[in-house]
Amino acid sequence: MDSNRTILSAILFAALFAAHAAAVSAEDECGEGACALPPWLAGETNAAVAPALTVLSPVPEAAVEPIAPAPRLDTLDGKTVALVGGSFMASVTHPELRRLLLAEFPTAKVLLFDEIGSAGPYPRPGVVRREKDAFQRRLKENGVDAVVSGNGGCGLCTPKETGSCIAAEALGIPSAMIAAPGFVKQAKATAAAAGLAELRVAEYPGAFASHTREELLENTRKVLWPQVKAALTGDLSASRTASASRTASDTSSSTLSFESYDEFARVFLDSGWTDGLPVAPPTPERVAEFLKFTDRAPDGAWRGADPATRPSWRRPGGRPPRRPRPLP
Question: What is this structure's pTM?
């Protein structure tokens, strides 16, 4: 009993010490009762506040089935539009988008949130996700003509909301993704990794969580709505449409960006790229160093390869070098 009390006391002391340290740190960064937002939350997008972790996608683009961008609509009049998602103040922006859409196109029909659901993260090759299949089935059953998904305001919610756009485009339904400045690139990279070369993104001017309800509504009216309307009805350029038709010879690697290791681990787990055990982030530098010790191409598929053709670790004319371990 005494040993348990000692352990509990030690845990409580450590927690109090950590809380005190955090409070002191906060006092150093705050003044006159106000604390500055961290750069990534304030919507800054320069190199100094870039995502903390950038990794290569484990799936080469040549292994992904290309998804051609859906043709855009001539008008939204008489069309059924699904506003899906629910992340980062979508409870404010989406109803306002519905109001604006119906005001300009009174014969349109709008399905909101749970009326249609969402796809969740789009599955990688070989991964079956029932949520995505059910979402696509509901799109067909409800005769949906266009999808707007959002809001992408973090490293986890952005791939999740982008998944609904990819699922719609795969059915030939035009879509628009809504994202904050720091996550537009991630949304497009997520789509590209799934085979969709052209994702239309409506960029919100700043961080969703840092704006008042009034600011959110005003930015939805003045900034988001014009972009969303153009994304669903504007013509795709011939060059961008053609870029979706990749050939097997195109083996360039896609990159994925995350704000933390936890976000990286969650996305890799959801994508079926790990069984839950810790995994070393495949950064471009680590992958390049690892591949120095093999004669296989960077975009080659290794899993399930014949033993005779698996990576050779032996250098010609000498003993095999000490190779880097796959895990740290």
Answer: 0.64
